[in-house]
Write a structure and sequence with these properties.
By secondary structure, the protein is mostly helical. The protein has four helices and no strands. The longest helix has about 55 residues, at about 95-150.
Length: about 150
């Protein structure tokens, strides 16, 4: 019995620690996605305002990805979605398979990090509603039995 109480306390401590970490991870994943998806309009607006090809230092990693991953998903996103018309000198062979696989894995990890806390909260709320429904159903059946017994006189 004592071991069960210790296990229950350990599980609640793990949940108590894991939930804020999950929400923090979701927040960081959201910021990373916002940073990457907002890069084209920020960079294009900066280039139009200054009239030069220099970009803000904050978006250095995005430019590095574009330059090193010629023909990859970031170049496609800039050119096809935002019509930035980036012209990079070099071959037009496209990215190797492992670059595409890396983008898929990183994208899936960011998606899971964003969705996991919301999914856990939804499951917890569903379980709470289910137990509340079972409780009200058992109270209702108990009330029906007592009222039918009182009506029959017994």
């Amino acid at each position: 019995m004592k071991a069960r109480g210790l296990l229950f306390r350990t599980a609640s401590v793990v949940d108590w620690v894991a939930e804020p970490i999950g929400w923090l991870g979701a927040g960081i994943a959201f910021l990373v996605l916002a940073y990457l998806l907002a890069a084209p309009p920020v960079l294009l607006a900066h280039a139009r305002q200054t009239g030069s090809g220099s970009f803000p230092v904050l978006y250095g990693p995005v430019l590095w990805i574009i330059e090193t991953d010629f023909g990859g998903p970031m170049v496609w996103y800039f050119n096809n979605v935002w019509h930035a018309e980036l012209v990079l000198i070099g071959g037009d062979e496209g990215p190797p398979w492992y670059i595409v696989a890396t983008y898929i894995v990183v994208g899936a990890m960011l998606f899971v990090a964003l969705v996991l806390p919301v999914f856990k909260r939804w499951c917890r709320r569903k379980a709470e509603l289910g137990s509340a429904a079972e409780w009200s159903q058992s109270i209702g059946s108990l009330t029906n039995r007592t009222s039918s017994a009182a009506a029959s006189g017994g």
